[in-house]
Amino acid sequence: MGWLKFLGYKALGAVLWVGTWCAPRYFAGENIVDIYGTFERYKWYVIGAIAVVVAIVIARRVRRGRAAQTA
Fold first, then answer.
1. Is the pLDDT of residue 69 over 70?
2. d(Cα 18, Cα 46) in Å, to the nearest integer?
3. pTM greater than the 0.70 cutoff
4. C-alpha to C-alpha distance for 43 and 32, rounded to whole angstroms
5. What 3-state DSSP class applies to 52?
């Protein structure tokens, strides 16, 4: 990959990354403190739900793998 093409992709990635982090703060305005408070209150529930979903996906894949080996 040439340096000019690489530079273009790198610049696009930087713009998207900065926009991803700055846009919510800009649009939330003064409500950002309330949003962070709500996030802190519910983050463990979200983490727990994600852990359950990941465990279910892993269990299903293990079962399918074992079923394929016995068949």
1. yes
2. 25
3. no
4. 16
5. helix
